[in-house]
Request: fold
Amino acid sequence: MYGEAVSRLVVELKRLPGVGQRTAERLAFHIVQMPREGGLSLAQAIREVKDNVRPCRTCFNVTEADPCRICADPGRDRSILCVVERPQDVLALEKLGAYRGQYHVLLGAVSLLEGVEPEDLTLKPLVERVKKVGSEVREVILGTNPTFDGDAMSLHLRSALEPLGIKVTRLARGLPSGSSLEGASKAILAEALEGRHTV
Amino acid sequence: MYGEAVSRLVVELKRLPGVGQRTAERLAFHIVQMPREGGLSLAQAIREVKDNVRPCRTCFNVTEADPCRICADPGRDRSILCVVERPQDVLALEKLGAYRGQYHVLLGAVSLLEGVEPEDLTLKPLVERVKKVGSEVREVILGTNPTFDGDAMSLHLRSALEPLGIKVTRLARGLPSGSSLEGASKAILAEALEGRHTV
Reply:
């Protein structure tokens, strides 16, 4: 229907999350029609990310420096470690600005369905990091997603870390702030009820 | 929040249509985490589009050959010309498969609001193309979007082409007003093509 270069671009764009045929075509035609410099500068930005961004060897967050900015920051609390699935989760917590500890990125989620085991993730480096002589970690917060698979990961982490005398906590579950009871799923309501506490 | 390369990529992605901060971050993190070859091949596809795709000198559709595939096709009806705003509109009509004439792409739309006049588009080359010795064009279909500004363009085209003895028709108002050709279903497009009439 359109030429080879455009077809190839559509195919490449469709690999991106949430981009189907129609969106890929819309983006491709936009790129075709944008000024040449704009297109090349997008291509260059992608190249640079692939060339310069890698996982931090300490926490596995994406970084251009190694160790990453957070691991290297002497102002961050080294006694507390939040374990999350993806770099995006670090970003979400950093945007919040309320967490001053460090992170460990699993680079994925345990998935029974897709056969992803805790061993496929960065669980081993996490345990080594906590065990290491000189480690100041006293508490590990499980920040995995509130899903069945996230829970499975929680159990794995707890059994790996509790023997080391580390306090293992997890992010609270309940009704999302600003939502309504009416709109909450049964699972959300059940957990909200389960986790009720004195006020 | 994140490093320079990722920030730059987010900025570049936000220039794409329909991509806000959140989507740009999601896409950027996906690109960061995809295999290196995948990222480079996306960057390369963008580069190639910018290097190889240009407007056809006859119809101004985007093309990798010049004249484009449609202008060069001896099987297409040269007596009929459909004038559309953007290359995407050609794609939409080609996907329909019911139109066997040729095209002329205006590379934009008249916009009173944004001060885009017919003279800023490829109106002059269109008139020259129709006037040219040997031109077989007998009918020009106005395929501009069914909007107020599209109508303004219709009037301009009619006054430019009717003196040349060209029959000027326009797509029927089967198209929902205020929408775009790109977003129209095949059924809507087919009705619009079928119901075209003299203006």
